[in-house]
Amino acid sequence: MTYIDVINEQAAELTALLLQNLREALFSSRAYLRPSDLQQVADTQTRVFLAAIVRRDAEEAQRHGAYLCTVGVGEQVVLGLNRTLQRFGLQHLAGEALHDFLERADEHQRHVVEGYIAQSTAQILEEQERIRSALQQNLQRYTLQLETAAELARTAISTLELGSLLTSAVDLISARFGLDYVAIYLLDEDDRYAELRAATGMGGRIRQAARHKLRANSGNSVGKCLASRQHILLVLRNDEHSLPSASWLEDTRAEMVLPLITHGRVIGALSAQSTRPAAFSSQDVIGFQIMCDQLANAIENARLYADAQRRAEDLAHAYDQLKELETLKDQFMQNISHELRTPLTMIRGYAEFMLGGQLGDVDDSQRDALQVILRNSEALSEMVTDILAMLELSATKTALTALSMREAVQDSVIGFQIVAAANGIALDADLASGGGACLVMARPNHLRRIIDNLLGNALKFTPSGGQVHVRLWEREQRVYLEVSDTGIGIPVHFQERIFDRFFQVDSSQRRTRGGAGLGLALVRELVQSYGGSVSAVSPGVDLGSTFTVTLPRVTL
Fold it and tell me: Which three-class secondary structure state does DSSP give residue 476?
């Protein structure tokens, strides 16, 4: 009997040793061999080794090494195979048979390791190529996502109309990534419903026309995304427990939903759908979320722009209405003022005729009544004149001319001398200190109105026996006009309001003198329109007043 026959008889024992070696390797090496395959691998190892003892076939040994690598036997098991064979040979052989056995075992071991290393190297290269290809694909997809995000940003800059922005966004994303359906949902004002605002394809247009919307807190994919502020990945499995989402179209098999978040607030969601179950992976989320962040900011900007446009239109409409009302008011005031002048002239004329006796004798009580009529008609006529002057101030567009303040004051003082004498008031003017013409840029009727109102006001509130003094001078680049009187004065707490429209100091003396409170207001508005200023100073009641006007001086 040869030693080969001995080995064949002990094949079961050899298989047992190899099986034990495999089992130990499951816990002591990186082998990923399944326990259920251990017996089959051990049987194969025995069969191949016994064939190698007989035929010494190197190629078969190498194929066996490749097989061990393929089924997941770890390198420690392969390297320890020779030790198992040596232990088996020492137990059953001796002398020349043992020597020949060990030599053939070493040769078999070498060829097995060669096959194992060759297969392992091939697998490593294949895995590296697979990884490289996967990385390349991921890089290309991520690059495409970034390019799409950049194009979305350019689209957002080029259009601020929300509808156009959303339509361009879904069309771009669908075309770039070969998706079957892309939709954008935006939350309503109450955050209760997510309304479909843009979608691709015929199905999307039908849904959009039907005003499709989903509850924001519902259990569908869009509702879950809005509630959790996190992306949702769904795949329709082929089992009875897998149901499509309410946001899906009929043929959809995979969906990725991402939140639209801007300034920390969720404003909607983007749903991307495909008929391919493996269309989306977790690696797509980062790139798509960048796109959604760009889109969310663009949506917010479009909304702000639309709101600003609405506000601008409202303001423009309100401004047009205000201008129309202002025009109607001016027309009304002009019409009323002009319509009042004719009856006022007639009232004053008849009152003067009756006081003069042209219409018959009048007794003292009738004379007093006529004087009241005449005094009030004169006050009303003065108010009408002031109103027309204010309206003219806001509407006039005539050019300014250089006027002599000295000549204008002199003419006005001469005109008021008769009124002053009739009321027992001394009116004098100091114009010599002017040293020149005191030129100012103004309109003749406005300049005369400033002076007349100041002089008329001083004479009106100065009692008989009092004095009104006018002084004019120029210094550096300013012209100063001062009108002071010894009249009833102005309370200190009213001196800042004396130039307000329709303001009257609440005193019996001022009330008896009439007036609507427009004369001084007109003076201030006229003076300020020419770049000047006016002020009033009074020590107090019955201590007189001083009004000072300052205007820019013109040098020719």
Answer: coil
Q: Are residues 260 and 406 in the same domain?
A: no
Maximum CA pair distance of the chain?
A: 179
User: Given a cut of 60, is residue 264 above it in pLDDT?
Assistant: yes
- What CATH number does the domain containing 478 carry? 3.30.565.10
DSSP category for residue 56: -
> For position 27, what pLDDT does the model report?
61
The CATH number covering residue 217 comes to: 3.30.450.40
- Residue 100 clears pLDDT 60, i.e. is over it: yes
| Pair (74, 174) in one structural domain | no
Identify the three-state secondary structure at position 454. Answer: helix
Global model pTM greater than 0.85:
no
Encoded tokens for 61: 């040994």
Residue 226 located in a structural domain: yes
Burial class (CB in 10 A: 0-12, 13-18, 19+), 313: exposed
Q: Are residues 410 and 548 located together in one domain of the fold? A: yes
Residue type, 215: R
Domains: count for the chain: 3
Q: How close are the terminal C-alpha atoms of the chain, in Å?
A: 146
- Distance (Å, whole) CA 517 – CA 523: 11
Task: Measure the CA–CA gap between 261 and 225, rounded to whole angstroms.
Answer: 11
The model's pLDDT over 208-220, given as tens digits with 9 standing for 90+, comes to 888 898 988 888 8
From residue 416, give the alpha-carbon distance in Å to each of 383, 419, 458, 481, 485: 18, 5, 11, 16, 14
- Does residue 98 sit in the same domain as residue 174? no
The boundaries of the domain holding residue 458 are: 396-552
In angstroms, the CA 491 to CA 379 distance is 23
- Identify any residues that bridge with 258 across adjacent strands, giving them in sequence order: 270
Residue 374 CB partners (closer than 8 Å, separation 6+): 348, 351, 352, 355
Q: Do 166 and 229 belong to one domain?
A: yes
Question: Do residues 168 and 96 both lie within one domain?
Answer: no
- Please state, in angstroms and rounded to a whole number, the distance separating the CA atoms of residues 48 and 50: 6
Token duo for residue 414 = 């001469």
Give the end of a domain, one of 236, 262, 281: 281
For the stretch 493-544, pLDDT in tens is 777 778 887 666 654 444 445 555 678 888 898 999 899 999 999 988 888 9
- How many Å separate Cα 13 from the centre of its chain? 82
Query: Which residues on neighbouring strands pair with residue 186, listed in sequence order?
Result: 195, 268
pLDDT digit string, tens, across residues 327-343: 777 677 667 666 766 77
Within this chain, do residues 402 and 543 fall inside the same structural domain, yes or no? yes
DSSP-assigned beta bridge partners for residue 182 = 272
Residues 46 and 190 placed together within one structural domain of the fold? no
The CB density around residue 496, as the number of other CB atoms within 10 Å, is 10
CB distance 339 to 358 below 8 Å: no
Could you tell me which of 340, 270, 333, 329 has the C-alpha nearest to residue 299?
270
